[in-house]
Amino acid sequence: MVVSSTLVNVAEDAELRLVSLLSEKAASSDFAATCEACIASEDAAKLIQTIVSDASALSALVQHESSEEAVGAFSILVALLDSSTQSLTSILDAIVQQDGDSSRKLALISVLYNMRADSQEKCTILSRMFPLASPGDLAEDQTLGRLLVEESTGLLTNPSIPRIVAMLDSWNVSDSSRRHLYRLIAESMSGTSKQRFLLLLVATYQNQSVDADGLKVAKEVSIGAIRDPISLFTQQRNLMTQPAVQALAKTEPILSGLLQVFQEGRLTDYQQYLQNNGGEDKVLKPFDLDVAASERYMKILSLCSLAAEHEEIPYETVVDTLQTELGQVESWVIAAVGSGLLEAKMDQLVQKVMVERCVVRQFDMNQWKVLQNRLQAWKKNVGGVLDSLKQSQTIAAKAK
């Protein structure tokens, strides 16, 4: 039998060894003969179709005792692939649907990822990999985990994004493909990591007409932003500007209004909102939001809003704003500092909070104007210092 040397650049009998391994589990009695005929005629497409259509044969790769041998055999099969996405998808689906260890299936699909160059194909392959991943596979030192590590963008409004976002940008991946991938990544994660990809997902809905899936994502990400408004503060700060989230005003008005309070309001606004909309049972509990945690976050956010407006805050002002006791002021300042949203010191003698730095909850045109005014004031002050220095130098020169 003549073995094809044009199908794959490996040892002459590689294809036959692949068929031999798969035949051990093949359901069809003529599986080996059919595959050998394909090899003899150099018909790679039919060979792939024959292998993929026999699920029992492919189980040999997932269940083989030697992971190294299974991966090596699968590499031969991948090398037979033409540029057809259909062939790629059929192999992916066939492997995913096999019974067996997810880590082995992930190892096999990783071979596909590494051996394919087309960006759309790689995106498709990634969409099969993340659902198979365990928490350990998503660690920073693992292949998939490295894609989720955040890198700096150099932007004030969004200082960091996961590496996979930049990679998809370079591939010019469509919004529909991104949505599918971001959703799968989010479903494989929990907590803050999950919320990060839900935020990326909701940002792909930029059209004014948001479909049912977009509204579902918007609802999920809004609940996440209320449940924890601090961990991803920068990424969530302008959530209300997203078209999908704005569309919630019609479908989920209570949730939309509550999100706006968490984005812009203070404790008194939050309390008034609860009162106007039926209380905690009507506003918080339908979305499984914790009553105590929600109030605590609103107090921290209210303190940040106060700190963004004043460089020095009397303790009594904090007491009034947070509706707390004088003896609790320092605890709340410590909580705000611990959240990373505020940098401040406390002067216990004069009972004032000295603000060093504070986040701005809504960074829009008004904040840009405030920043411009401050820069102009600093420029004027520096100019005055330079003028004084020049005058001093002139006087000193004359004195000589």
From TrEMBL:
Cytoplasm as a keyword of this entry, yes or no, is yes
Q: Which PANTHER family match?
A: COP9 SIGNALOSOME COMPLEX SUBUNIT 7/DENDRITIC CELL PROTEIN GA17 (PTHR15350), EUKARYOTIC TRANSLATION INITIATION FACTOR 3 SUBUNIT M (PTHR15350:SF2)
Function as written in the Swiss-Prot or TrEMBL entry: Component of the eukaryotic translation initiation factor 3 (eIF-3) complex, which is involved in protein synthesis of a specialized repertoire of mRNAs and, together with other initiation factors, stimulates binding of mRNA and methionyl-tRNAi to the 40S ribosome. The eIF-3 complex specifically targets and initiates translation of a subset of mRNAs involved in cell proliferation.
What family does the entry list? Belongs to the eIF-3 subunit M family.
Q: Which GO terms describe its biological process?
A: formation of cytoplasmic translation initiation complex
Q: Which UniProt keywords apply?
A: Cytoplasm, Initiation factor, Protein biosynthesis
Its organism's taxonomic lineage begins at:
Eukaryota, Sar, Stramenopiles, Ochrophyta, Bacillariophyta
Does the entry feature the keyword Protein biosynthesis, yes or no? Answer: yes
- Natural source organism: Phaeodactylum tricornutum (strain CCAP 1055/1)
**What InterPro entries does this protein's entry cite?**
COPS7/eIF3m, eIF3m, eIF3m_C_helix, PCI_dom
What is any one of the record's Gene Ontology cellular component terms? eukaryotic 48S preinitiation complex
Q: What is its main location?
A: cytoplasm
Where in this chain does the record put each PCI domain? 193-360
- Protein name as catalogued: Eukaryotic translation initiation factor 3 subunit M
Q: According to its UniProt record, where is this protein located?
A: Cytoplasm
Gene Ontology MF term list: translation initiation factor activity
Residue stretches in coiled coil = none
Give the record's subunit note.
Component of the eukaryotic translation initiation factor 3 (eIF-3) complex.
